[in-house]
């Protein structure tokens, strides 16, 4: 029923590499009916949704496909080339061309969507693929994305595709919200409108550093939106698109393979300034200030042929030490060098020690002497097929040395920060952090969309004795004004468990703050109709107690802009301490404590005037002190 190859609930780690699938097809609905008629009475027919995918179909699993070609294949339902159903595959460096989705009307539903690829309820990692000359008889000449799909679609080249319906390049339906990053959509056609990208049915994708344009006369808009909220910035859109923000309309210059010609190209250093979108591999990237636009820029540009890879991780056997691993997917003309840049100066290792010569792997240890943002840049000579050139790759990691007495804070250039207070861990340790590039989202939370930073903090402990504060910036292009309370911080911990943290939104700073007892990956997510958080108080404030006068108990409210230790103490008119009302750690937000009219010994105190004093971070010498009056009448 399916086409050339089907992955059905396969094991994690399943891989398909260097394979050509040519001229495959699914059965038609008539052929499926004939097969079902021959089945024994006790055997259930295969559901029709398992008959999609002319070349490859993937169901409920996460295989990896690399350097695979799918061509000349046909689906009589959806997904001419590849059909992905409720799955999370990694698909990279594949070529998908001359495929067709040629469906029909079934039970009132028009099939024949997605000439190249269909994502149905899926979270793919879809990087550096070429999708061209595919056709859909309904919508989505190259891509059809629907049914709460998310994931990441990055650095893909998509051109010459067509649809008889809408969305020659891409059609997105059904509350889908993937990240569209550094893609190029060029000369795609839709006979019923929207040659480029079409978004509908409450979809909220985030699109950055991409190109959508056509070389000929435009008869329809390149992007159109109907009942959806795509967040599109820092992209070249040549054509009709009225709702764009930060859209460049200059025509970019390419050479034959859609890479920038040189550093003067208006694709270079014109992408989003966030470090999570910056370039890592040179070539194909050219600029070194911010991310390039198009397939040559961003974190995944290296999939387009760049040989070097670099990894940085904690050395578990030596405190305050990192291990750096450099490897190459191709033979090099020289041993890689490594440059280490940080605030205290640069360090250069001319030739990295070899770890595995046959596997093109090199590495070394590195001792951390200070808290810093450290950039590791590996460089080597490489023959690219035409000449020997310099190739390089860079990785950035943020390190902070935690001490029991002083605590530690770690922050990225984008405004993400993680503060671990003193005595939260009973030893000195190294905290590591970086802007996370993953695509995971909490399961069964279908209406959440990514809306800001992903920040990973690594610590050699699973849990802290005192809570840390995490603060992450959110993306105002995604979040609707007045609906900021739909924002929240989620934690993916080392055990793979997702937790929604109690969150506070600072609309002025455009950040979301929360507390956590665990390290892990922290993600800003958004539900437009949700009430997941509270507004962060504008200031730290001790408020008037109520009732006042009172007998026998009263409530004392206070609000905190930042988490911290709080001591609330009661004094009489002579300045003598009467009682400690509370002394402990409080998170941001509004809090209340009660006083029952008794001293520290538990004895009732006399009627009269008393003063209650709040100290933030007592003993630090830098805390805030506020005092108010109350009256006890027995």
Can you lay out the helices and strands and say which pair or pack?
Layout: E1 5-8, E2 15-17, E3 20-22, H1 29-37, E4 56-59, E5 64-66, E6 69-71, E7 74-75, E8 82-85, E9 90-92, E10 95-97, E11 100-101, E12 105-106, E13 109-110, E14 117-120, E15 125-127, E16 130-132, E17 135-136, E18 143-146, E19 152-154, E20 157-159, E21 162-163, E22 170-172, E23 179-181, E24 184-186, E25 189-190, E26 197-200, E27 206-208, E28 211-213, E29 223-226, E30 231-233, E31 235-237, E32 247-248, E33 281-282, E34 308-314, E35 321-328, E36 337-342, E37 345-349, E38 354-356, E39 361-367, E40 372-383, E41 388-402, E42 408-411, E43 417-420, E44 429-435, E45 449-458, E46 468-473, E47 487-492, E48 498-500, E49 503-506, E50 511-516, E51 520-526, E52 533-535, E53 541-542, E54 554-560, E55 564-572, E56 577-586, E57 589-595, E58 608-616, E59 625-632
Parallel strand pairs: 1-4, 2-5, 3-6, 4-8, 5-9, 6-10, 7-11, 8-14, 9-15, 10-16, 11-17, 14-18, 15-19, 16-20, 17-21, 18-22, 19-23, 20-24, 21-25, 22-26, 23-27, 24-28, 26-29, 27-30, 28-31, 31-32, 49-52
Antiparallel strand pairs: 12-13, 33-41, 34-35, 35-39, 36-37, 36-40, 38-39, 40-41, 41-44, 42-43, 43-46, 44-45, 45-51, 46-50, 47-48, 47-51, 49-50, 53-54, 54-57, 55-56, 55-58, 58-59
């Amino acid at each position: 029923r399916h086409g050339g190859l089907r992955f059905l609930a396969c094991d994690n780690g399943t891989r398909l590499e260097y394979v050509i699938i040519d001229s495959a097809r699914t059965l038609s609905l008539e052929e499926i009916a004939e097969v079902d008629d021959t089945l024994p009475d006790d055997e259930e027919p295969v559901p029709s949704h398992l008959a999609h995918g002319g070349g490859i179909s993937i169901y409920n699993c996460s295989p990896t496909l690399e350097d695979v070609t799918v061509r000349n294949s046909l689906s009589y339902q959806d997904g001419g080339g590849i059909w992905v159903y409720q799955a999370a595959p990694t698909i990279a460096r594949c070529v998908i061309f001359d495929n067709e989705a040629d469906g029909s009307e079934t039970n009132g539903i028009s099939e024949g969507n997605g000439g190249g690829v269909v994502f149905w309820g899926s979270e793919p990692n879809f990087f550096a693929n070429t999708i061209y000359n595919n056709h859909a008889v309904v919508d989505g000449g190259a891509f059809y994305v629907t049914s709460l799909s998310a994931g990441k679609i990055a650095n893909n080249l998509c051109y010459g595709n067509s649809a008889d319906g809408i969305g020659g390049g891409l059609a997105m339906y059904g509350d889908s919200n993937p990240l569209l990053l550094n893609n190029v959509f060029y000369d795609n056609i839709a006979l019923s409108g929207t040659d480029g990208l079409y978004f509908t049915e409450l979809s909220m994708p985030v699109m950055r550093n991409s190109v959508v344009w056509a070389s000929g006369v435009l008869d329809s808009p390149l992007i159109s939106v109907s009942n959806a909220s795509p967040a599109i910035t820092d992209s070249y859109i040549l054509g009709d698109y009225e709702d764009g923000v930060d859209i460049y309309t200059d025509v970019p210059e390419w050479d034959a393979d859609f890479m920038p010609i040189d550093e003067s190209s208006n694709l270079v250093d014109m992408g989003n300034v966030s470090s999570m979108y910056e370039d890592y591999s040179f070539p194909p990237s050219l600029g070194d200030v911010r991310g390039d636009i198009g397939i040559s820029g961003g974190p995944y540009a290296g999939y387009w042929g760049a040989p070097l890879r670099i990894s940085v991780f904690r050395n578990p056997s030596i405190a305050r030490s990192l291990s750096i691993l450099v490897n190459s997917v191709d033979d090099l003309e020289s041993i890689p060098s490594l440059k280490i840049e940080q605030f205290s100066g640069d360090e250069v290792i001319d030739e990295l020690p070899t770890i595995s010569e046959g596997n093109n792997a090199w590495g070394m240890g590195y001792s951390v002497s200070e808290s810093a943002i450290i950039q590791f840049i590996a460089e080597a000579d490489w023959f690219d097929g035409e000449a020997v050139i310099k190739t390089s790759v860079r990785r950035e990691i943020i390190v902070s040395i935690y001490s029991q007495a002083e605590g530690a804070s770690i922050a990225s250039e984008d405004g993400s920060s993680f503060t671990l207070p003193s005595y939260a861990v009973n030893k000195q340790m190294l905290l590591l952090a970086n802007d996370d590039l993953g695509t995971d989202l909490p399961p069964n939370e279908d209406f959440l969309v990514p809306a800001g930073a992903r920040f990973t903090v690594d610590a050699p402990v699973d849990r802290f004795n005192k809570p840390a504060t995490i603060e992450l910036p959110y993306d105002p292009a995604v979040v609707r004004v007045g609906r900021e309370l739909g924002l929240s911080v989620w934690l993916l911990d080392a055990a793979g468990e997702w937790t929604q943290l109690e969150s506070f939104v600072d609309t002025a700073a455009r950040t979301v703050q929360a507390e956590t007892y665990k390290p892990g990956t922290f993600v800003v997510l958004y539900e437009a109709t949700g009430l997941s958080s509270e507004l962060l108080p504008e200031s730290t404030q001790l408020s008037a107690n109520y009732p006042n006068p009172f007998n026998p108990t009263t409530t004392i409210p206070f609000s905190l802009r930042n988490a911290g230790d709080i001591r609330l103490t009661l004094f009489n008119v002579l300045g003598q301490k009467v009682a400690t009302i509370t002394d402990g750690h409080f998170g941001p937000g509004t809090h209340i404590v009660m006083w029952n009219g008794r001293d520290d010994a538990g004895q009732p105190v006399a009627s009269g005037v008393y003063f209650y004093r709040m100290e933030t971070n007592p003993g630090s010498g830098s805390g805030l002190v506020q005092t108010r009056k109350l009256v006890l009448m027995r």
